Amino acid sequence: MAVTKIRKISSWTLLIVTVISIALFGLFFFGGVGEPLGEFKNPTYTGEVLIWSYFLLAICALSMILFGVTQFFNKFKTNPKGAISSLIVFVGFAVLLIIAYSIGDVTPLPGINADSQKFNVDNWLKITDMWLYAMYALLALSVLAMIWSSAKKIINK
Predict the structure, then answer these.
(1) For a FRET experiment, which of 37, 75, 87, 133 has its CA 20 to 30 Å from that of 67?
(2) Cα(first)–Cα(last) distance of the chain, in Å?
(3) Is the pTM of this model over 0.70?
(4) Residue-wise pLDDT tens digits, 46-63
């Protein structure tokens, strides 16, 4: 019974998030263009798409932390050694972020308007690079995990 309820909730959540995302991206691409910013176009609904992206990022980060901590404490009651090994994911993610931050570039970006110049400083440039490199690494790890799991199924047959 619980699995069915979880499946229904997750299916409805995915459907709602997908519909909202498609609607916002449709507005972004087909909703018109405002006053141009120099040589660049200025889509009307850029702010709404950015807010939606920030919202999704926050929900994902909070979910990961909440479920990870909950799993750790539940596992710690039954299997303390296994619970400690589950912390490897959090430590690995922290190490990934530290490495990505350290290899970030601090070269100022040319052609940025006056309002954005306050973010064209070393710290913000490194933070931006950190998140980009972390996303690239996690994407590569996801693809490698899919390939590995497929290959493992084929080998085990």
Answers:
(1) 133
(2) 32
(3) no
(4) 889 999 999 998 998 898
Over the stretch 71-97, which tens digit does the pLDDT of each residue have?
Answer: 888 888 888 888 887 788 788 889 999
b/e sequence 85-102, b meaning 16+ C-beta within 10 Å: eeeeeeeeeeebbeebbe
